[in-house]
Amino acid sequence: MRFIRKTNVQFIKIRKIAYTVSLSLILLSIISLIAHGGPRYNIDFTGGTLIQLKFEKPIEIQKLRAAIGKQGYGDAEIKHFGNPKEVVIRVGNVKQDKEVSTVVEDLIKREVADNPFIVERVEKVGPKIGHELILDAIKAILWSMILILIYVMWRFEFKYSVGAIAALAHDVTITLGIFSLFNIEISAPIIAALLTIVGYSLNDTIVVYDRIRENLKLTKKTTGDALATTVNRSINETLSRTIITSGTTLIVVTVLYFFGGEVLRTFAFALIIGIVVGTYSSIFVASPILVDWEWKKA
Amino acid sequence: MKTNTRTRFIIIAIVLIIAAYFLYPTFKFNMMSDAEKEKLKLENQKAYFNLKAKTINLGLDLQGGMHVVLEVDVKELLKRLATNKDDVFLRALEETEKQVEVSDEDFIAVLDKVLEQKKTNITRYYYSPDRRTKTDVIKYLRKQINESVDRALEILRNRVDEFGVSEPIIQKQGDRRIIVELAGVTNPVRVRKLIGRTALLEFKILEDNVISGKVAERINNYIQSKISPVDTTEIEKGDTVAAGGEEATSLEKMFAGDTVQQAAEIAKKDSIAELFEEGLFYLNPRDKQTFLVPVEKETKFRRILQSPEIQKILTEEAPGAEFIWGSKPVYNGRYLPLYLVRKNVELSGETITDAFPQRSRDPMSYGQYEVSLTLNDDGARTFARVTGANVGKRLAIVLDHKVYLAPEIRVKINNGRAVITGLDNIDEAQDLSIVLKAGALPAPVKFMEERTVGPSLGKDSITAGTYSAILGLFLVVLFMIFYYRLSGLVADLALILNIIFIMAVMAYFHATLTLPGIAGIILTIGMAVDANVLIFERVREELDKGKTIRASVDVGYSKAFITIVDANVTTFIAGLVLYTYGTGPIQGFALTLMIGILSSLFTAIVVTRVIFDYVLETRTVKKLSI
């Protein structure tokens, strides 16, 4: 069985189109991020309280809002979580002596007495921890990029790492942008997903690079049009593998998205976007940039 | 079979046996029913924990439980250590706290700066003959903070041990934080009390009723002077004191007509003017000593108490005394008691050697839950002296700045025993005994982070995670057979071995499997076949070039090898960084991802190769099923 036999797609020739697509996506992401005032962080980063409740019968959001509105939590974010019996209530940082979760639980117990519930999850994060977590996340993403850059420079050449990092920045920006467009919150697991995307996208890129390096050893000319031809051939030769691996990874991540439960859903969503964007970037961004970099120098 | 191939087979077999050996306890443990586990735990606790220590540990997000991050309240600690706390110093502390909240700066450094801005210096407040310079003082304070964290850690450990949770985790994070993880515990309110309370126990003498009455009178006069007479119509009448059956003598009746109109008008401009109203407090008619504040007016009255006028009344009428609130409302929960207590600490909780919960046999409080305290010799002696010298007065038992009870001292107490009575239930009595025995924290702790997961959510997560993993595995396995035929089957075998190895490594290190960790394993299933995809694609290419099967397989493996290593190192780096900067569940994800990468290198390259070599050596293959 083979989906892709020998291909000869002119990836390098159409790179200007790919660049335009990528730049528009990046621009769109940045615009969305600016319009939304930066990424939307969840309580892991902003601090606050999250309460997940499971009721015996389906529950209306309006009813809950009315109930907890009595103590001034009317502007809390209340959403169903996976099914109409479960809800997640998010309250921002409040300075008070009593525990927010206790107050909210007691209120609902009193106001919605005909529909008993159990507390599934309570997460309370102080603003200081959240602040530190943002710093840690930024540090983690930067450090992984720096270390990977060093590794690629050591294994390949500097010009390769330029393409790799450009592809990475491309992937992370667009994933964040799509999250911002869909108004999905960035939580600590999403940062983990982003870093996985960084690793995964590089995985693809390096497979192509490896082939380029191998093919370059066979041809004498390593600049100009010859380089473009070699790069193009390498992308085509590895195309089958790129698509199969992305496919199997997408299969499991999609399964995770649909069956892995509510808690992991956004995490799986981030990975789906990341894998698609990462696969695209290793073909259309990382390698073509290599060619352009060489041409600029020449 | 060539010797080389045989050797490799043997190596793989050994690895597999070792993996099975590591996995067996996990398998056995999870096959046991809850009842069987309980039974083993009762009959042979050591065997139970030995077995459990060899299994894959489930994270709190999977088994349910509570994760708490605490920080020692440096502000309170510094306040306690300072010798002469003047207003400038207290204000500087508040300012410093605000600044440190938004930045990561060092508390002491900021306090030093703030004090200097206020034209004073830190040495003034912490001076002692052996610390004369600023450097000495700062060094001393740093040491105190560090030691306080260590002591708090130890005390919390004692408390949690007594509380009886299996495998609690209590550890230091960074310099100032303490992480407490309690599996299976889902009652945040109780845990919060158990680990969050300072448990500072103090015995203090109540101010007598003459002084209390005088203070009450002046406070009432002050309040009346702030109320506009128009509003006085709403007098709460008939506030019967249930237990005594007497009617509370409301003070506004006693001092009616004292209102001054002008003062009321001035008061309106006051920031706390709207707080004043009738019936803010009453003096308990039974003892003429306890202030009773209607519970709904507590917040208002608290704010009024802070006003400088009230503070002035206190210093004039009862120097050396302070107001301390009661621990819970009385008289059917309608009034919160407030006591005027002498500041001097007669005896503190450090002298407690034992504390245990019991039910009261005293006729006054028969059947109520209480905690019985035993004091050491020193404590008993002091207690005897204090009770002896204050017969007829009332002794306030103050825990964490709340008066639990204030009984009258009838006789001198020589045996070094005391009781704290009036507790709600046996749990409260039990927990209070634990914290009193373990000792007071050196400073209050703040809850920085608190995550509780209920057991049902954990179970749902495990079910959903396992289901996704099996379904994902099934689909990938099917796809590989469909796409690569028999070779795909070989890759599938490697994939399944890979999962076994990941679990075995986790069991060996007694590592924690979290929900994101399960996601990591699922992701690994998708990515682990990548190495084989790379190899197979390469083999196909070589076959297309017209090479022999043997040569194609050899070239495929050797050329793909470098690519596989390069590609996996990058993901590994990402995992490593994630492990370094992440916490809890995220680390679990990074861990499974890294183990998965290493193990997939072994299974995808070594295991599949051996199978190919074996097949090619033992039979003549005309066409490779790839």
Oligomer: heterodimer
**Total discrete domains of chain A:** 2
Please write the CATH class name of the largest domain in chain A: Mainly Alpha
Q: What is the tally of beta strands of chain B?
A: 19
Brief descriptors of the model:
heterodimer; A: 298 residues; alpha+beta; Multidrug efflux transporter AcrB transmembrane fold; Alpha-Beta Plaits; 2 domains; four-stranded antiparallel beta sheet; 4 strands; elongated; B: 626 residues
Explain what the structure shows.
The complex is a heterodimer of chains A (298) and B (626). With 298 residues, chain A is α+β, with helices and mostly antiparallel strands. Chain A has 2 domains: 15-42 and 129-297, Multidrug efflux transporter AcrB transmembrane fold (Up-down Bundle); 48-125, Alpha-Beta Plaits (2-Layer Sandwich), CATH 3.30.70. Chain A is 68% helix and 10% strand. Chain A has helices at 15-35, 43-46, 61-69, 100-111, 127-155, 158-181, 188-218, 224-259, 262-297, and strands spanning 48-55, 77-81, 83-91, 117-125. Chain B has 626 residues and is an alpha+beta fold. Among the domains of chain B are: 3-15 and 454-618, Multidrug efflux transporter AcrB transmembrane fold (Up-down Bundle); 208-317, no CATH class. Helices cover 57% and strands 15% of the residues of chain B. Chain B has 21 helices and 19 strands. In chain B, the strands form 6 sheets. A 4-stranded antiparallel beta sheet of chain B has the order 3-4-2-18. Chain B has a 4-stranded antiparallel beta sheet with strand order 12-5-15-16. The longest helix of chain B has 54 residues, at 455-508. Chains A and B meet through β4, α5, α7, α8 and α9 of A and α10, β18, α18, α19 and α20 of B. β4 (117-125) of chain A pairs antiparallel with β18 of chain B.
